[in-house]
Amino acid sequence: MVAVRLLGLRPSPGRLERWVGSLPAAGSWGGRLPLPIGSVRSYFIRSIPPAGGVERGARAARPPRAAMGGDLYALDFDGVLCDSCGESSLSAVKAAKVRWPSLFEQVDAAMEEWIVEQMYTLRPVVETGYENLLLVRLLVEIQIPSVRKSSVADGLSIQEILENWLKLKPTLMDEWQEDRESLVDLFGRVRDDWIENDFSGWIGANRFYPGTADALKLSSSETYIVTTKQSRFAEALLKELAGIDFPSERIYGLGTGPKVKVLQQLQQMPQNQGLKLHFVEDRLATLKNVIKEPALDKWNLYLVTWGYNTQKEREEAEAIPRVQLIDLPDFSRQLK
């Protein structure tokens, strides 16, 4: 084990509150075999206050109604309804240990904990889940010079990653000789195996933001989920954690196309004609993409103040006429 210096302070015990499963030994993946969840140490994540008043048992979302005026809400999932940062970070560490086992031979428990903590800070740059794996490996290379394969890791700070991720990502993919589809597939399989072997641990690593589950249950508007998360994971969390049997045909997840295309599909559906259109996101870059599409001019755009974005992005959004900042209480009231 080499000695390494961790950037920043280790989190205080008060910020690490809940056991949520464990990390596999490096290189433990064998074809499609389950991950050895119980064979290594458990892991902590920060606890998010649970949504108040969530009923036990799944409740069906309100049935669709004929379009005679009213509202349609297209909602992002992660960062708007659900705080999945703990789960996605832990899944990324699990998957990274499978993908690059030799790197983790020099990673001890303290560094794993530090990596997960940094992922909370870096979460705003993640658009699609597989990027978490790249961030985990980059953090390892920043800390351990002997395993570096990238030209950008030396001296790189967390702030520089936040500011330059769109440029760093293709460089890392090229220098590590990785491809997107393989990483997406691995990330999904690791989650599937965590669910199969420790369902309660996987569920417990996620939290719905306070009030969002009740607002979604009670909404009288037409609601859709538009997310880069794989649909089966969003559907499972809605049912098991929020207690909502949300119609699967209303969840547009990874593989259904870019969000701008999904919004075009939604506004063209006959049953949605005459509805006032609302799109709620936590990524300013996504809202900017919508603004670039003249065909989407009818959408009211909202950037949430509680999701995975930065103060700088929120300040930038305030200067964009099409984008409205919305806080959690107003969102819950408006959705109902």
UniProtKB/TrEMBL annotation:
InterPro entries named among the record's database cross-references: HAD-like_sf
GO MF terms, alphabetically ordered: SNARE binding
GO biological process, one term: SNARE complex assembly
Gene Ontology CC: endosome; lytic vacuole
Name of the protein in question: Uncharacterized protein
Organism classification: Eukaryota, Viridiplantae, Streptophyta, Embryophyta, Tracheophyta
